[in-house]
Amino acid sequence: MSIPLSQATLSDLPPEIRVPSYDRDNLMAGIIHIGLGNFHRAHQAWYLHRLMDQGLAHDWAIIGAGVRPADAATREKLLAQDCLTTLIELDPSGKSVEVTGSMIGYVPVAENNAPLIAHMIESNIRIVSLTVTEGGYYQNADGGFDEFSPDIVHDAQSPQTPKTAFGAMVEALRRRRDNGTGPFTCQSCDNLQGNGAILRQTVVGLARLSDPDLADWIDANCTFPNSMVDCIVPATGPAELALARDFGIADNVPVTHENFRQWVIEDRFCAGRPDWDEVGATFTEDVHAYEAMKIRILNGGHQVIANAGEILSVQTIAGCMEHPLIHALFRKVETEEIAPHVHAVPGTSASEYIDLIDKRFSNPEIRDTTRRVAFDGSSRHTGFNLPVVRDALKTDSPVEGMALVEALWARMCEGTRENGSVIEPNDPFWSDLQSAAKTAKERPRAWLEQRRWYGDLANKPRFADAFDRWLTMIWAEGAEAALKSYTGA
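Request: output the structure for the sequence above.
Response:
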């Protein structure tokens, strides 16, 4: 029998399950987190939970928030179990379970974001954090602020009824300025190089479209710390729900995760912060090196293998690492083409980090699907892989493997696997990508001519010629032939 998860049933759970030791009735909100998905609950919320377990940070509890209609369903499920989360750690040496309680509420989801704004203007809210995906920050092809996006245009014209999370933040900050409450820290927890700087660009840029004085106030008074976040957290499906029940817990939204977490943060918080470093987070002024290592080797490494896995019908990332040719691609590209453009961080070299990621990706207990990892390639390739290509071209370094990686993405976006099965749409721009991929089957350079993602790379012969050659081989001889040719396996 599994016990429905709630505050009232915590004492009824099996004794081996770790539950909050603190009195959740005495917690006070200090953080609003927008985009409350699995990653946040396994990562940032866990750090805060462990801090609360030490008797600290009880005035920093989390209020969840969402800006998409689909978030309403998650809200109902979490509220039904008092915002508790079952975390299941998956490791080859064994599984462990913990219930976290650092989240105490969830803002109603509304199209005009009025409830979210109302919560953000409360004086006890001192941090507004976000996980809204790498592609959610309204950047244009050059990395600047995309002021012409329809959602941004709407929020600039109707700032008191915004559609976006950023518009809601701007309106809340306007009211806080006007009523004397003061600023809050704006904290991105997404996989972006310089995520705090990008968040500042979006928030200040949006405010400037409607109220330049407010934009100046935000820029001068709010802080936007850069950070690096890391933990592999698969999506929740029937298997994860069943796993929670196997441990005796009926949780409608459990989260599985690996036995690894890292959080590196700039210590720039204008209205205070929890002492996350007491439970393993790192505060430093050199986040950039950690970001670059993680984004290029881990996140970029995911894109190196996931598209090949989709084409060859390998369902999981661990399965990709078991596939000898995909694993050989990972090792060769990471070692020869990515690592040379990554600096060491204290205690870890690029080669040591590659070995760590190899081990983490190979964890058979983590059923992280190739489809999930390949999702939103238009953001992930541009954010994780193409900066490496540009660095390599500037330094006359190898690009053959990265050209093959991009050719595999182009092949995947055609929409079929090599066994003939259909790859369902897996990107916000899927129709555009698929159209370009079909054209590129006969004229490979057409893929690189998508300037919104590739910029001028179609005009760089060393990369473009290699891409042309690899995509031609993939279509003529198959992905495995291309992988064998590149790796020598």
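The chain has two domains: 3-285, 288-487.
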